[in-house]
Amino acid sequence: MPRPIARVLTLLELLQSGGLRTVAELADRLDVDERTVRRYAGHLIDLDVPVESVRGRYGGYRLAPGYRMPPLMLNDDEALAVLLGLVAGRRSGLTTAMGTAGETAAAKIRRVLPERLRLALDAVLGALAFTAPPGEADPPDSAVLLPIADAVTRHRPVSVRYTAVDGRRSERILHPHGIVAHSGRWYVTAADPAAGEDRTFRLDRISGVRTLPGSFEPRAGLDPAKRVLTGLATAPYRHEVTLRVQGTAEEIHTRLPAGIAIVEELSPSDDAGPETGRWSRVDLRVERLDWLPAVLASLDRPFVIERPDELRGLVEALAERLADSARRSPPHA
User: Fold this and answer.
1) Calpha distance 103→83 (Å, rounded)
2) Which residue among 20, 144, 259, 322 has the highest number of C-beta atoms inside a 10 angstrom radius?
3) What is the DSSP letter of 268?
4) What is this structure's pTM?
């Protein structure tokens, strides 16, 4: 591609990124003088691209608001980032697209790419392997996600229809704080004025979102992600487990994530056991106990089981099986 044409297309790419670009900035990015920038802008106008000129000390060029450029212009890094993002989102279960929308979006992007770049990206995707199976998710409808996200940004109350896990349906007024994606599911944290408390709702169980008049003042210091993880860790399950583990919260969370366990580092006077070092209290609520002994063993740290007693027996049984396996001799050839 002749160099002047390439620079004109680069100018268009810069303007497509949004906002006002000064002539000096564009000249620096294109490695030309300001007079040449004005000439390149004229070329775009001749091609019916609505480039607006803003006069004044801080003037420059921008695209007319609402203008959508028909051809997709992505460089190699941008194209790879977009396609890998679509693939990773679909594999992890975090895509918000319903049905095959993610696949059709990727196909449209590939269709407008130059053959050289398309073949290179196909080679990357064909050689790419994943260490985990595809995630299973219930993606939120865009008709739910977009108005709730707007309400979070503008502090607007919303009315929603919600279906609880037991199938009960209700209509609620919420003051949404934030949206959180976790383990293939999407959540919104919100104040529920009728209940007088903060709640967490799954977006795939919400329908009929309607923005209401007025606004609300969000409470300071809110952490939506922490609220979701705490809610998941304290959800009612069959077993309530309390442990004391020698280690910091960061060390323990490497095997017991925040969405599973609540970890509280203890002061030295509360430390359990004769061993030196910082201890932490760990609380979990789980439906089954059989997976916990192996996880505790993988921590490779001293621990004390406070409850339930049933867990002690499971840990002892695992220890006996491991000791029995360690004592076995390999079969003779």
Assistant:
1) 10
2) 144
3) G
4) 0.54
